[in-house]
Amino acid sequence: MISQTTEYALRAVVWLAANPEKPLTAQQIAEATRVPAGYLAKVLQGLSRAGLLNSQRGLGGGFTLAKAPSAMTMWEVVQAVDPLKRIKDCPLGFEAHAGALCLLHQQVDDAIATIEKQFSSCKISKLIDPNHAAAPLCAYQPKGSKTGSSRRSRR
Amino acid sequence: MISQTTEYALRAVVWLAANPEKPLTAQQIAEATRVPAGYLAKVLQGLSRAGLLNSQRGLGGGFTLAKAPSAMTMWEVVQAVDPLKRIKDCPLGFEAHAGALCLLHQQVDDAIATIEKQFSSCKISKLIDPNHAAAPLCAYQPKGSKTGSSRRSRR
Questions:
Q1: Is residue A67 a part of any domain in this protein?
Q2: Interface pTM (ipTM) of the complex?
Q3: What are the backbone angles phi and psi of residue B42, rounded to the nearest 5°?
Q4: B residues 29..48 contacting A (CB < 8 A)
Q5: Within A56-138, where are the H helices?
Q6: CB contact (8 A) between residue B94 and residue A137
């Protein structure tokens, strides 16, 4: 229902939200979110262009969220990389439907509207609630760490 | 949100539901629904394999719905050609999430569940309500007809 690109963008944003201590490189995010590095680089570019990420070049550089997780919604992320488009005009181009969608396309548009409403009301901060049974992408263990859990417990 | 394949399948099913008088050829359906004929042929095969269409060879043959529009739902059509899959296990393959999805994937699964509910409760018969302002694919005029409306007014 959401595209692969959107899925990857959401993973990256959630990971950055959960790890705000310092900028993360594309390679670090790719590894943590299990996304092919080349693919993720393009997704991160899209998120940056849309103003959702800041990128910083050079040593110690990388990506950070451009605003607080409590000020960013799932819907913004979806729309930044692979937007779900509401149906405003007849997809078949019928002039007779310009004023009123047929019932099929009304149903499909209603479904998109429902998703828009759900994702718009879901802040990224909600997705990193440390009290939830499964922490965001929690099984990731940075290379060289022994447990990967020390980072989690600090949140 | 729904794929191109699903959109085309829904158009074909709605058109067949609205025109039950006789079998329609793939070419006739393609023309009416404004779908490339080669693409539609594959979609119709998928719908037939899923048991939603009957196909009849030979002169006067073509496709018909395999059951009444009041006994077929939008969800069945979606699932027949390009299924929306509920998320049961962590898409990243994390064992720690086997018992509980992280909040991101829970949100995405909730959205799919909502669409499943909406489309499951929508019968195809609802999509061809003749009293709706825009009849299904209503601007279609069969070749050789002058108005294209005589067919509509018989419904």
A1: yes
A2: 0.82
A3: -70, -40
A4: 33-34
A5: 74-81, 103-120
A6: yes
